[in-house]
């Protein structure tokens, strides 16, 4: 494989909150309360003075106004720091990190905070406007299929279609879901999330992902299909809506040198694609294909770590089949089926996971030490038929 060219920007710190069920561990936390402690933690990790931060780019899909600014001020960043909120649904957090790397790489900033955050437990309710005076307002879900409908089943229909087209049966999906939970439990027991999760209070529940649990196949087989009798997708083999925040610090070569050139991640390249909205489940595959197309001599054997935030076990299985990769290589410490899917924060969680696996490794968290040059892939599908993928390299 030829040498890869990385951006002139360094991710030198990356952390997240625990991922919690809606109404669970983060139930009373507004988005700034959930996220500002993570900003302070990542800056403390890399010993960057908050006064040097040029701005924050935040992925978010459920708040109003510009929550990036609220978080910036709550975290004690300078009033001069810019603040941008972007919404590409579930891909927003990954895209925010990519944009920050490109901004720093272009020389437009020296220090950026980037990632994603969702507090579904406290996010504003969405209510449809009545079409006439005699119609009552309707509450809308957060995960809308389109502006014209409140049908939240479309992502499940897309994943069900993927499963049937690819011949992925219910038993195979349940087995993959079980593997995700078991991998997450094993990683927690091995303390691989130490240094990754920022406990917002000093209680055990704050330092672990709330929905990870000890399951068996009988538990999963008892679940009913979402789309009726014979349906392949269930609450057990799909990911749940969740609260969570994940952020990274991106710095310029000058700041990196001043810090003593610590180990870091660098963005190699990224790709975004659209597919038909009703084929959302295929979008992560399409984005990864485009990304690989940018590097003709790159294949999955080159990756030391692969992270994806899957809506369903079917997505994960189809992804592995498409690229001929062992499913055990993907989400080695458990995926979104186990920990939950915090919408716009989901893609940023992938970056934090890659940072832990490729950079934080060997720092007492039980992870495998990877050498400089190790590659990591982050990819996911987003509502509306969008896909994002990004290739990072440890340095």
Name the CATH homologous superfamily of the domain at 10-123 and 239-394.
Answer: Thiolase/Chalcone synthase
Report the biggest beta sheet as strand number plus sense, adding barrel if it closes.
6 strands, mixed
Please report the first level of CATH classification, the CATH class of the domain at 10-123 and 239-394: Alpha Beta
Structural class: alpha/beta
Name the poorly predicted regions: 145-151, 362-367
- DSSP strand (E) fraction? 15-25%
Query: Any idea what the CATH architecture of the domain at 10-123 and 239-394 is?
Result: 3-Layer(aba) Sandwich
The amount of helix comes to: 25-40%
Write down the CATH topology of the domain at 10-123 and 239-394: Peroxisomal Thiolase, Chain A, domain 1
Please write the string of helix (H) and strand (E) elements: EEHEHEHEEEHHHEHEHEHHHEE
| Silhouette | globular
Give the mean pLDDT: 90
How far the N terminus sits from the C terminus, by CA atoms, comes to: 17 Å
Total helical segments:
11
Cα Rg: 20 Å
């Amino acid at each position: 494989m030829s040498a890869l060219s990385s951006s002139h920007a360094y991710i030198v710190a990356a952390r997240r909150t625990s991922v919690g069920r809606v109404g669970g561990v983060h139930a009373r936390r507004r988005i700034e309360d959930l996220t500002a402690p993570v900003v302070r933690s990542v800056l403390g990790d890399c010993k960057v003075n908050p006064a040097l931060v040029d701005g924050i780019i935040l992925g978010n899909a459920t708040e109003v106004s510009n929550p990036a600014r609220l978080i910036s001020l709550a975290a004690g960043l300078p009033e001069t720091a810019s603040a941008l909120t972007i919404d590409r649904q579930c891909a927003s957090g990954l895209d925010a990190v990519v944009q920050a790397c490109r901004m720093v790489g272009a020389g437009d900033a020296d220090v950026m905070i980037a990632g994603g955050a969702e507090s579904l437990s406290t996010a504003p309710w969405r209510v449809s406007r009545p079409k006439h005076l005699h119609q009552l307002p309707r509450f809308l879900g957060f995960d809308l299929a389109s502006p014209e409908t409140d049908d939240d089943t479309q992502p499940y229909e897309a994943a069900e279609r993927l499963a049937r087209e690819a011949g992925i049966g219910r038993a195979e999906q349940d087995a993959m879901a079980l593997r995700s939970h078991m991998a997450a439990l094993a990683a927690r027991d091995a303390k691989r999330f130490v240094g990754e999760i920022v406990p917002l209070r000093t209680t055990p529940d704050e330092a672990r992902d709330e929905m990870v649990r000890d399951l068996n196949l009988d538990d999963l087989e008892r679940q009913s299909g979402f789309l009726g009798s014979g349906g392949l997708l269930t609450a057990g083999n799909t990911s749940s809506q969740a609260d969570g925040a994940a952020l990274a610090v991106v710095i310029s070569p000058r700041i990196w040198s001043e810090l003593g050139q610590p180990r870091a991640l660098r963005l190699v390249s990224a790709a975004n694609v659209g597919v038909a909205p009703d084929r959302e489940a295929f979008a992560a595959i399409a984005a990864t294909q485009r990304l690989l197309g940018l590097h003709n001599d790159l294949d999955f054997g080159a990756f030391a770590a692969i992270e994806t935030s899957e809506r369903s076990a079917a997505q994960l299985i189809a992804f592995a089949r498409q690229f001929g990769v062992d499913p055990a290589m993907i989400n080695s410490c458990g995926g979104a089926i186990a920990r939950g899917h915090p919408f716009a924060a989901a893609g940023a969680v992938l970056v934090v996971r890659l940072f832990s696996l490729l950079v934080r490794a060997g720092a007492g968290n039980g992870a495998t030490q990877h050498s400089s040059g190790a590659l990591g892939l982050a990819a996911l599908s987003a509502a509306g038929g969008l896909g994002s993928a990004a290739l990072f390299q440890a340095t």
